[in-house]
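MATE family efflux transporter
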Amino acid sequence: MSEVKAGKMHDMTVGSPVKLILHFMVPVFLGNVFQQFYNVADSIIAGQFLGVRALAAIGSTGSLMFFVTGWLNGLTSGFAILVAQWFGAKEYERMRHYVAMSVYLSLGFAVLMTIGLGLANVPILRLMNYSDEIMPDVKAYMGIIYAGLVVTAAYNALAAFLRALGDSKSPLYFLIISAAINVALDIAFIIYGGMGVEGCAYATVIAQGISAALCFIYIVKKYPILHLKKENFAFSMESCGRLLSLGIPMALQFSITAIGTIIVQGAVNVYGENYMAGFSAAGKLQNIVATVYVAFGATIATYVGQNWGAGKKERVLMGVNCTQIMILIYSVFAMALVFFFSKYMTLLFVSASETEVIDVAVLYFRMVFWCYPFLGSIFLYRNTLQGLGYGLVPMLGGVFELTARAGIVLMVAGKASFAGVCLSDPAAWISALIPLVPYYFYVTRKWRKELKKKA
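Predicted structure tokens:
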């Protein structure tokens, strides 16, 4: 058992669910903020020093970045569920075997994505209605990001393994360091090096590589439980199949959502550079607001995975109920924040003289802020089902989300005002819950009956 004492692992099968969830969630939230900070810093520096066109070019790639990094994040998070379950069951040799198989799969997907997306770069951008003026910048930026996907996959996988064992703080520290390096490199490449948007992309890839390297070194030094032996790497098609049965649906769920945002971005691009810049700024800000929801989702997946592996169904139910209350409380704060302060928050990206860009961002928030409780609940129920080992229904929620978002865009794009396009997000968030909530209560209905009998 000595290997279990090394590092900063947390057994989430004992203790107060609220305290455990908050203790785990806060570092994950901060880590997500710093991970978002890569693209946000690129957008801020590009907008302030290169102008509105550069902001429109880099900022509008957010949906594509979400598509690519979301796939890798979902894939590795799905793999980590089995790691968390076997850690909770204290089957450490089996846990290490799944870690090794995850390494194979993560590397393979990263290489395939680099090749495929690199070849499809221009066709994808054409489908998104980019103008000839902006196309060269967007093409250059995304080409560099695609080339660095191996380091993105490495960080996501290593951080997911640490979180599966209950350590959410270490990945945060490494992200803080790499985020600071990203900003420093942005300034060096753009302001002093005279580079354009390519400088932002190089800074992002280098910083992500540093965070991956730090994660790896830390695991080698502090986590003997994750030290893999030769026998752990014995390839097993069955084990890879189990990992893919969780990883692929989670990756698809992120990608399906991203496809919807790409469709919306394509509709916004038709309105011109000011709308692209305003919508991009609003999207970056909202992503930061939503990182709390993402953090709750990642936390509940680990919490549920460990307790389900330990056979503690009552604790699963308690954790979900407590998290729902905390999400609703935060949603009230987030709604007030964006309603009253979105105008001032947008000034991070553009000067006060860019009034049309600011007005676009404010209009977006006024159209969507009321739906934040639904957005938060998506992460709760989707990740809970994934933590229990159900992958299909969470993916189905993504299909509902995509259908609603695409449907609104098709109805209003080019036929109505920009405000109509903004409504695609609330429609998507509400629709995503249609399969998730009923299925969660269906799955846990027997558990509730058992608890009533005991009471």
